[in-house]
């Protein structure tokens, strides 16, 4: 009788301890590994896309823009990841907690602003073409929950966009751009 009781206790002890020791091989832990791999792969794709953007636009290389004109598309989650990565690399960032969403062709942006005054701001924008230039058309701006005239943000942002894309606008091959915004994908396609 003692022999059967000891064997039974040993059997149940193994049944309880065995899954903890071999949990890496159990099917329910494989989902966690697969999810981490998928997220890492998506983040790697975002970084690869950004490197193409950076080599073309940040270095003002028109030939690279032309060669990659169909590759300037980012999902909303990729853009949020890239903003988060960039903010983490800056000692005193102007914007933190940036959150992008997209719906009905609009881009919704919310972020914490830290410069001469600090606070949460948000705006809704459309990217449009004016004289073949990229323009942000704001329909709503709030700072600290209070409405702010859209021109207060629209004019400085469009001025900065002009400076950023000036190398493209000056090129004789440039004919404008096409911008597409769906619920999850933003695509900027320069036309030559």
Give keywords.
5-stranded antiparallel sheet, 5 helices, alpha+beta, globular, 192 residues, 3-stranded antiparallel sheet
Descriptive report:
By secondary structure, the chain is an alpha+beta fold. The chain has one domain (30-191). It contains five helices and eight strands, in the order αααβαβββββαββ. The protein has helices at residues 2-21, 27-58, 62-67, 76-88, 151-170; strands spanning 73-75, 95-103, 106-114, 118-130, 133-143, 146-147, 176-181, 185-191. The strands form two sheets. The chain has a five-stranded antiparallel β-sheet with strand order 2-3-4-5-6. Strands 1-8-7 form a three-stranded antiparallel β-sheet. Strand 2 and strand 3 form a beta hairpin. The longest helix has 32 residues, at 27-58. 7% of the residues are buried. The model is unreliable at 2-15 and 17-35 (pLDDT under 50).
Short description:
The chain is an alpha+beta fold and 192 residues long.
Instruction: Record the strand order, biggest sheet.
Output: 2-3-4-5-6
**Any idea how many domains?**
1
Unreliably modeled segments: 2-15, 17-35
Order of helices and strands: HHHEHEEEEEHEE
The N- and C-terminal alpha carbons lie at a distance of 89 Å
Query: Mean of the pLDDT scores?
Result: 78
Give the strand tally: 8
| Total count of helical runs of at least 4 residues | 5
The amount of helix comes to 40-55%
What is the 3D shape? globular
Computed CA radius of gyration, to the nearest angstrom: 25 Å
Query: What is the makeup of the main sheet?
Result: 5 strands, antiparallel
Beta strand %: 25-35%
**Multimerization status:** single chain
Structural class: alpha+beta
């Amino acid at each position: 009788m003692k022999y059967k009781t000891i064997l039974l206790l040993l059997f149940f002890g193994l049944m309880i301890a065995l899954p903890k020791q071999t949990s890496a091989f159990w099917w329910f832990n494989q989902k966690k590994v697969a999810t981490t791999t998928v997220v890492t792969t998506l983040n790697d794709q975002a970084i690869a896309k950004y490197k193409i953007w950076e080599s073309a636009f940040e270095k003002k290389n028109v030939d690279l823009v032309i060669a990659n004109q169909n590759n300037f598309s980012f999902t909303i989650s990729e853009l949020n990841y890239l903003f988060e990565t960039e903010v983490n690399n800056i000692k005193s960032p102007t914007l933190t907690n940036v959150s992008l969403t997209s719906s009905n062709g609009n881009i919704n942006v919310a972020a914490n602003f830290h410069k001469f005054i600090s606070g949460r701001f948000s705006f809704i924008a459309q990217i449009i073409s004016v004289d073949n230039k990229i323009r942000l058309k704001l329909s709503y701006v709030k700072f600290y929950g209070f409405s702010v005239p859209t021109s207060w943000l629209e004019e400085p942002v469009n001025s900065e966009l002009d400076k950023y894309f000036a190398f493209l606008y000056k090129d004789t091959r440039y004919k404008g751009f096409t911008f597409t915004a769906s619920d999850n994908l933003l695509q900027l396609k320069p036309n030559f």
